[in-house]
Design brief:
Layout lengths: L6 E2 L2 E2 L3 H21 L3 H9 L5 H22 L9 H19 L4 H17 L9 H19 L3 H11 L3 H25 L8 H20 L6 H26 L1
Helix pairs in contact: 1-2, 1-3, 1-9, 2-3, 2-10, 3-8, 3-9, 4-6, 4-8, 5-10, 6-7, 6-8, 7-8
């Protein structure tokens, strides 16, 4: 990130317009997540990749998404499928312990390539069929979501395939996805702290994005049944594909 780009409130590479733009992006993408259950985190990740290198992008995005996921879970708390929480947490801790050690050793171009390819895969991934007992499946889901989340941060689309497979209705899916992604983000933040990844100087930006993401989640809850889902899905995949291809291109020319 180029320090000449700005230094608003002491944040290198951030000027007033970038600050405002990212705050608005957090609101819009939290709105999308609250309506669709997934997608918002991926879109925000792709937008933030224009501003931050991966070593800063992942931790900052994780903090912002923690607020969004928590507000999703809290707003629909009574629909949370609680049997998934304990096995998922066990898998999540294992995933963070393994993924964190690999994260700090990878060069920036490799991380960008992982980001781009993973966004493409998550944007176009088919629904994952049910396999095995729920408890074992959610240990695996916790491991996978957190291990991959260390590198690509936004794994809600992948995890959504697991929660959707057992959810009686959409509210159960969204509440459980929000709750489980909250666990993923908390475990990842602890892992980044243990590894000494420094991003505290961006606290003003993270605070603003948290406030707007919570507002976006509330607005999304209100509008949940009013947006044509098919049109949204098509637009979402086109935008993500374009942004992911940009990341892959940047990484490829840096290798």
């Amino acid at each position: 990130m180029d320090s000449a780009a700005g230094q608003f409130l002491g944040m290198v590479g951030i000027d007033l317009w970038v600050f405002a733009g990212l705050a608005i992006a957090a609101l819009a993408t939290a709105f999308i997540s609250a309506v669709a259950g997934t997608a918002g985190g991926l879109i925000l990740l792709a937008i933030m990749a224009f501003v931050f290198p991966p070593v800063l992008l992942i931790p900052i995005h994780t903090v912002v998404q923690l607020a969004s996921s928590t507000s999703m879970a809290v707003s629909r708390w009574r629909y949370l499928m609680r049997a998934t929480v304990l096995p998922f947490t066990v898998g999540s801790i294992i995933g963070a312990a393994i993924g964190g050690q690999i994260f700090v050793s990878l060069p920036e171009s490799i991380l960008q390539m992982i980001l781009g390819l993973s966004i493409l895969a998550l944007a176009w991934i088919p629904k994952i069929a049910r396999f095995g007992p729920d408890r074992g499946r959610f240990v695996f889901a916790g491991f996978l979501a957190t291990f991959l989340g260390i590198f690509i941060s936004a794994t809600g689309t992948l995890l959504g395939a697991f929660t959707n497979a057992i959810a009686p209705d959409r509210r159960n899916h969204i509440a459980t996805l929000g709750g489980l992604m909250t666990i993923v983000h908390i475990v990842k933040i602890i892992a980044f702290g243990v590894l000494g990844v420094g991003f505290g100087s961006y606290a003003p930006l993270m605070a603003a994005m948290i406030v707007t993401s919570v507002a976006g989640t509330y607005l999304g809850k209100v509008a949940l049944d009013r947006i044509p889902e098919r049109l949204f899905r098509i637009a979402f995949q086109v935008i993500l594909t374009a942004l992911a291809l940009r990341l892959i291109w940047i990484a490829a020319i840096s290798l």
